[in-house]
Design goal:
Layout (H helix, E strand, L loop, with lengths): L1 E8 L4 H13 L3 E7 L4 E6 L6 H10 L3 E5 L10 H22 L17 H18 L1 H12 L5 H24 L11 H25 L1 H8 L4 E6 L2 E6 L8 E4 L8 E12 L1 H4 L5 E3 L4 E2 L4 E2 L3 E8 L5 H14 L3 H30 L4 H14 L3 H20 L2 E3 L3 H5 L5 E5 H5 E12 L5 H12 L7 H10 L7 E7 L3 E6 L2 E6 L1 H6 L7 H9 L3 E7 L2 E12 L3 H10 L3 E5 L4 H11 L3 E3 L4 H13 L4 E5 L5 H6 L2 E5 L4 H6 L2 E3 L5 H36 L11 H20 L9
Parallel strand pairs: 14-21, 14-23, 21-22, 23-24, 24-25
Antiparallel strand pairs: 1-3, 1-4, 2-3, 5-6, 5-7, 7-12, 8-9, 8-10, 8-11, 8-12, 13-25, 15-20, 16-17, 17-18, 18-19, 19-20
Helix pairs in contact: 1-11, 3-4, 3-7, 4-6, 4-7, 5-6, 6-7, 6-12, 7-26, 10-13, 11-12, 11-13, 12-25, 12-26, 13-25, 13-26, 16-17, 25-26
Length: 737
């Protein structure tokens, strides 16, 4: 099984994307396909033992579209400048065409040789020439319309092609009659209708294209932030190379003002880096030896040497771009409904147009009125707005999420997040940092805190116990050298001992004191630290207790505020942990969570999620570890912090790039606004078609309300613009109350 994303050319409406998607899914070897109209690409999952990319591209071609190759994470070129020039030229031609054909209606002076009453032949020839120019301009529309009709996937282009060609055919017939001397047929020419319809369709697509490009800005910004060149260190000398030349293990140099070239680990230097593009954090982050750096970060003020670890497609940026693009190609249930409707919509419109045409003739209306109504129905009903309604809103919201450090892997997440009514939080590594830190020191000796921790840290460095990492981190952060340790001994379940600076040093819990017959004079201090959730370490030097150190897992910033806001919005919260009840209740009390489930194993976490879903709850699970992955996968939405394990992030639907749980509030809020926006878009799209089709049929003619093909083309552009502008409002991201 393999996934690829192909760029697709020739899609113009939801009927196009829906038709291609259905066609691909029918092909043997293709397991799944999702076609995105806004991004103009297709996410295809296939069996590589049966198919290859070339065969898939042939399927795309047979469906009436063109594959432009694999999505390559490079910034897409802006819309062709020639397209703008053509639009201006044909805009001028459209004005000339309208002047010749309709100038006399508003009293404008028309040259005699082009006057329809004086020189009808010249008049008809001039309109034909201009109309042919517009047919050439819109030949891609007619060609695509024909292909999709042949492949039984009629779309917007099919409607336009039938309407335009019908107008042209009838106008050519009328022109022949004029040449035969029947000059009254000059009133029955519809060359200008065919031409102006094409012009308005092109106008709509030009504006759509500009708007679609704007929706891709977040992805393009991510791609652009990686520099093209870098400086690497070879044999002590600096050498400038391209990004593609950097290999894993190379030492890369960054000066103040530079962008980090590739993901890596600092081996020398110190600086403040701006990582706002990926974490959403506006303040620069201090980085030093041992810290990781991300490609695209800005080095504000220091000199760094870092070892290249992730390059090319492995880099954080490349992975984010890949996930964002894949997310825009997954379809929310609401989008599938719109696709299904538009799939039936086009054939129904063609049938309505044919019935109207026949009815006009049967009822005795002139042929030119029948053909005009036929063309008007086809043009006014083009499902452009319907096709843009959902995908445009989804892509804009995906970009907003990406810009705010929320990596959404499936677009359906944006539909489901606003429905969430219960959130389960893992404790260690999610509500807390997951790494033990020194929380409190009670010093009974004359040693300074630094000297005391140098002794303790030197001995703990010999241990493999998780608590040892807290002291190791302290020495590293404060650049304190380790002292020599002799005669190290591990006392299982109790602690460790050894000689440091020729003094016997013993570290451990209260049990270790009885092992060495040491009287405990500080039980009250121990109890005080324990009540605060600390793990206790006694420090004994030469049989004398010189300190008690409390080590604790620190609660993440803003967690209390996040829980409070979730409660205010009537979203239930549960803390789920494998820790003991005492520790769990102590943490829960501090942050305001009332529902606590402790002493659970991974399988029980997943079972709880399943039970809550069975009870009708919409469940979000937020975790970070391997033991959370089954629960993350089973939840309606799985959220992983970025510091979590790879398997946890793979099992989740959302990754919080900054490890900031307040981003959950933003996700829910963005989801609410996205769904509201989509519903608004769909309402206006359906309202437009429901209103305009009866008008186009002529049901309101008795009251003087009617439209012609040109007005229909203009109305279609306005409907699309309404949807586009409404979707772009999502770029503003209000906070959850």
């Amino acid at each position: 099984m393999k996934k690829i994303i192909l760029k697709i050319d020739g899609m113009t409406c939801s009927a196009c994307s829906n038709g291609l998607e259905k066609y691909l899914k029918k092909q043997e070897g293709i397991l799944d396909a999702s076609v995105n109209l806004v991004m103009a690409n297709a996410l295809i999952e296939y069996d590589e033992t049966k198919l290859d990319i070339n065969q898939i591209e042939i399927f795309v071609k047979k469906a009436g579209f063109k594959s432009l190759g694999l999505y390559d994470n490079k910034i897409e070129k802006n819309r062709n400048k020639n397209e703008k020039a053509k639009f201006i030229i044909f805009g001028v031609l459209a004005i000339i065409l309208m002047y010749i054909s309709m100038g006399h209606m508003v009293g404008l002076p028309i040259p005699e040789f082009l006057n329809m009453h004086i020189n009808p032949i010249n008049y008809s020839i001039s309109l034909l020439i201009l109309a042919i120019a517009f047919i050439w301009y819109g030949f891609d529309i007619i060609k695509n319309g024909y292909k999709n009709f042949v492949h039984k996937t009629p779309n917007m282009d099919t409607l336009v092609a039938i309407g335009v060609l019908s107008s042209m055919a009838y106008s050519i017939y009328s022109m022949i009659m004029i040449f035969r001397g029947n000059h009254e047929y000059a009133e029955n020419l519809y060359f200008e209708s065919a031409a102006i319809v094409i012009f308005f369709i092109k106008l709509g697509r030009y504006l759509d294209g500009i708007s679609k490009d704007k929706t891709k800005e977040a992805i393009q910004k991510l791609v652009q932030i990686t520099p093209n060149k870098a400086i690497i260190k070879i044999d002590g000398k600096e050498k400038e190379v391209t990004i593609d030349e950097i290999k894993k293990g190379d030492i890369v140099i960054s000066h103040a003002g530079d962008r980090i070239s590739v993901d890596g680990e600092i081996i020398n230097g110190k600086a403040h880096l701006d990582e706002a593009f990926i974490t959403g954090e506006s303040k620069p982050t201090s980085k030093t030896i041992g810290n990781k750096v991300i490609a695209g970060s800005i080095n504000y003020d220091g000199y760094l040497e870092y070892k290249a670890e992730k390059i090319g497609k492995e880099s954080t940026i490349s992975q984010i771009v890949k996930l964002v693009v894949e997310a825009t190609n997954t379809k929310a249930p609401i989008a599938k409904v719109a696709d299904k409707v538009s799939g039936y919509f086009v054939p129904i419109v063609i049938i309505i147009a044919i019935i109207t045409f026949v009815a006009y003739l049967v009822l005795g209306f002139p042929f030119n009125e029948a053909i005009s109504s036929f063309v008007t129905i086809l043009v006014v009903a083009c499902p452009c707005a319907l096709g843009l309604a959902t995908p445009l809103a989804i892509v804009v919201s995906e970009g907003v999420c990406a810009n705010n450090g929320i990596l959404v892997k499936k677009s359906e997440t944006l539909e489901n997040a606003e429905k969430i009514n219960i959130i389960i939080f893992d404790k260690t590594g999610t509500l807390t940092y997951g790494t033990l830190k020194i929380s409190k020191i009670i010093n009974y000796s004359n040693l300074s805190e630094k000297d005391l921790l140098q002794l303790v840290g030197s001995l703990e460095a010999k241990s493999t116990h998780p608590i040892a990492k807290a002291f190791e981190q302290y020495l590293k952060e404060n650049k304190i050298e380790k002292l020599e340790v002799k005669e190290f001994e591990n006392i299982s379940g109790h602690g460790i001992k050894g000689l440091v600076d020729a003094n016997e040093l013993i570290l451990g819990n209260a049990k270790i004191l009885s092992n060495f017959n040491i009287k405990n004079l500080y039980e009250k201090d121990e109890q005080s630290l324990s009540k605060e959730g600390n793990s206790i370490i006694y420090v004994v030097q030469n049989k004398k207790i010189i300190a008690i150190i409390g080590v604790n897992d620190i609660i993440r910033e803003n967690v209390k505020d996040v829980i409070e806001k979730l409660n205010q919005n009537k979203i239930e919260t549960i803390m789920l942990t494998g820790d003991n009840k005492e520790t769990a209740h102590m943490i829960a009390e501090k942050i305001g969570i009332k529902n606590i489930i402790a002493d659970v194993v991974p399988a029980q976490k997943a079972e709880l999620v399943k039970k809550l879903k069975k009870d009708g709850k919409k469940v979000m699970m937020c975790g970070d570890g391997i033991n959370d992955s089954p629960a993350l996968a089973n939840a309606d939405i799985g959220v992983s912090v970025n510091s979590g394990t790879d398997i946890a992030m793979d099992s989740s639907d959302v990754i919080l790039m900054k490890n900031d749980l307040s981003k959950i509030l933003d996700l829910i809020n963005i989801s609410k606004h996205t769904i509201r926006n989509i519903k608004q878009n769909l309402f206006w799209a359906f309202f437009y078609n429901s209103l305009m089709i009866p008008v186009a049929i002529g049901l309101f003619k008795p009251w003087g309300i009617s439209i012609n093909p040109m007005m229909a083309g203009f109305a279609m552009v306005i409907s699309s613009l309404t949807v586009i502008l409404n979707a772009l409002r999502l770029k503003r991201k209000p906070k959850l109350n």
